[in-house]
């Protein structure tokens, strides 16, 4: 397991006794590295020091001599000017950034303003400008100007969308508040469906085939949860498909944004499909989406809609990330383990981890890192029966529950999801979003819960007021 910023114990042999922090000590160091000093303090006092080695000032040496002082007094003087602080936790002394709570609490909102032009350099009005995966957005006025305010700090994709033009997407990272300017020139779109005709021998224009492909596409996009039955694509005519019978690959194209209504959670979603491919059990799709509260799209009372949104959020990937960054996993019902395999999981035989074992705060972002796979158990809600009936999702982690008739014999239990890193540590911004969306993969319950159970990035169950 990699180093962590909360519970990494220094290598060495330490005394097993506990030291009273009011016991006087005498220590003298001359031109020593901070790590050596902490080692000596640990041996003398019996305290374990927990910290990430990356926190310690590189190349700096310290000279300090004190007689009959308390350990907290000694540490206060030792860490002056380093930007570090200490705190006691049972028999541990945790060394951390002095500015960590300040950085997280500050969360200054910021604004985005800019101008949108067409291919001839003329102002373009009515351009949809929004933050991908949120309810936050605006549109350009007659002079091509737009303004989006009150944006929480973090990493976002800013999307420009207008019929007949290619989407413009810019990555924005903002941690310190203040306004940002983002101008954009729209580019005329090339007819995507014209490219499909190049492989016309592999395209079926049969209405029956299109209906079959659309059913597969819909299930892949929405999932098979109870909420998926309440989701509708109101403009399916913009979707077309190719199917390669040699490679068994289904590809979907959209000539316009998909208009989606989720009646279960009273959201209208505008989905800009970038790519969609299914080859056997391998599914890959991506796109940008804008959420809009729309209570008039459902016959459910407001309190039921709010309850369903909260239920979908609790235990989800977004909920896990927020709990992880606030050190609240156990309180919120999550349990954390490391496993070598994603199938035949049995977390009862594994050692439970904590936040500090997998995540490091870097001042303006976090880094998530672990070996093998991270197994996450959500204890406050059982699995859906529909999940257990979905062989593609459930059999990945419950292969040993499938009988000779390929039937999954298992009653609902705690929700289990897994995370795998694809290429090293995953960077997570202050807003709780993974900066590189291809940095990791999820399996199990999170993989099964898709668009039908998705709430916006900026959703907060405490402030869900439908505005």
Describe this structure in words.
There is one protein chain. With 467 residues, the protein is of the alpha+beta class. It has helices at residues 34-45, 71-78, 100-106, 192-196, 207-222, 302-313, 317-325, 329-332, 385-389, 391-397, 445-448; strands at 24-33, 48-50, 61-70, 84-89, 92-97, 110-117, 128-131, 137-139, 145-151, 154-161, 165-166, 168-174, 178-181, 184-185, 187-188, 231-233, 239-244, 249-254, 258-262, 267-279, 282-293, 334-339, 352-353, 359-361, 366-368, 373-382, 414-421, 426-428, 440-444. The chain folds into four domains: 24-98, Phage tail protein beta-alpha-beta fold, CATH 3.55.50; 105-188, Immunoglobulins (Immunoglobulin-like); 192-296; 317-448, no CATH class. Mean pLDDT is 82; it is low at 1-18, 100-106 and 192-205. The strands form eight sheets. Strands 16, 17, 18, 19, 20 and 21 form a six-stranded antiparallel sheet that branches. Strands 23-22-26-27-29 form a five-stranded antiparallel sheet. Strands 6, 9, 13 and 14 form a four-stranded mixed sheet that branches. It contains eleven helices and 29 strands.
